[in-house]
Amino acid sequence: ACGFCATGQAGFSRQLTAGEIVEQVVHAARTSAARDQRLANVVFMGMGEPLANEEAVWQAVTRIHDAIGISARHLTISTVGIIPGINTLADRPLPVNLAVSLHAARNDLRNSLVPINKRYPIEDLMQACRKYLQKKNRRVTFEWALIKDVNDTPRDARELAKLCKSLKPSAHVNLIPLNPTLGYLTKGSAPEEVREFADQLIDLGVNATVRRNRGTDIDAACGQLAAGQPVAITSRSIVG
After folding, report:
1. How far is the C-alpha of 198 from the C-alpha of 176, rounded, in Å?
2. Which CATH superfamily is domain 6-13+72-218 in?
3. How far apart are the C-alpha atoms of 122 and 163, rounded to whole Å?
4. d(CA 90, CA 131)
5. pLDDT at position 74 over 60
């Protein structure tokens, strides 16, 4: 997990089953239908590492695609960069979208922000992304939580742009200011700094989107998802 994410700070209990994952989608679809809306996209992101639970996640993807009818182009699997999981995903039949929680474009910084980088460094991660692109012809997205004075400098923008453009087609970047958590007190970049960083990427030839912050008022925004008190887990713990 990312070092600044409340989910990772909470520790590991167990993996979700495929049925538990699908049930969340079914609930969302029913809630949308009750509001005369349609569930259009499913993103495996926000709490936990999908590729540490790849088999169950792929079973869920298949059921969501076949039974619920959401196409592969509207299914996205996110990862902190578990290379064996990315390679396995590349060999799966459906061309789902791949999102990588990158957050830094050089190993020394990413080692501190995303500790799994010590096992799967950026240069190897980029090679896995190239393989995925070649097999699936799906543009890769890089997720980047902007942390004030940590990864929001012009140098960071240049290094990120270089990584993006090393992929063909170039990776897309989703930007969002870091959301506060008790275990990581560093501030997120201010809105004007986020916009400036996005403009720098665009000037360097990279597509970038600034994502809206939602759920911070109830500690449910990106990086904040964690139980407020201990939760009893009765199922057997399973390590991805």
Report:
1. 10
2. Aldolase class I (3.20.20.70)
3. 9
4. 7
5. yes
